[in-house]
Amino acid sequence: MIIDMEKQKREQLRWLILETLNSARPIGANEGLMLNVVNDIQGQVTGRELRLELDYLTDRGLVSIIGKDTAIWHAELTRDGVDVVEYTVGCDAGIARPKKYW
């Protein structure tokens, strides 16, 4: 069995972004704050990696980005993103959401 560490890192980063934005509700968070949080937990995440995964989550309809054409992005969870974080809906492949233990 081969473990794709890069894929695993991306999927974990996506979950950390969702959790960070859930904690920042209802205001959301800028990319600097998100980068600090995910680097404290996961380590060695670049701004480019963060933006790629924010863009991915936006395409999935879980996150909305404000100021995508500016130097600093600001993101918020969508209604669907809140539902994924709160385990009220299923989570498709591509996000490393832990199994519900309660």
Describe the overall structure:
By secondary structure, this protein is mainly α. The protein has a single domain, classed as Winged helix-like DNA-binding domain superfamily/Winged helix DNA-binding domain (Arc Repressor Mutant, subunit A, Orthogonal Bundle). It contains four helices and three strands; from the N terminus they run αβααββα. The protein has a three-stranded antiparallel β-sheet. Strand 2 and strand 3 form a beta hairpin. Helix 1 packs across helix 2 and helix 1 packs across helix 3. It is globular and about 40 Å long. The chain starts with a helix and ends in a 17-residue tail after the last helix. The model has no long low-confidence stretch (mean pLDDT about 95).
Mean pLDDT across all residues, rounded?
Answer: 94
Helix/sheet category = mainly alpha
Number of DSSP-assigned strands: 3
State the end-to-end CA separation. 30 Å
Output the CATH homologous superfamily: Winged helix-like DNA-binding domain superfamily/Winged helix DNA-binding domain
Report the C-alpha radius of gyration, rounded: 13 Å
The main sheet orders its strands as 1-3-2
The total number of structural domains is: 1
The assigned CATH architecture is Orthogonal Bundle
Shape: globular
List unreliable stretches of 5+ residues.
none
* CATH fold field value: Arc Repressor Mutant, subunit A
* Highest CATH level, the class: Mainly Alpha
Series of secondary-structure elements, N-terminal to C-terminal: HEHHEEH
Helix content: 40-55%
Residue share in β-strands: 5-15%
The total count of helices amounts to: 4
What summary fits the major beta sheet? 3 strands, antiparallel
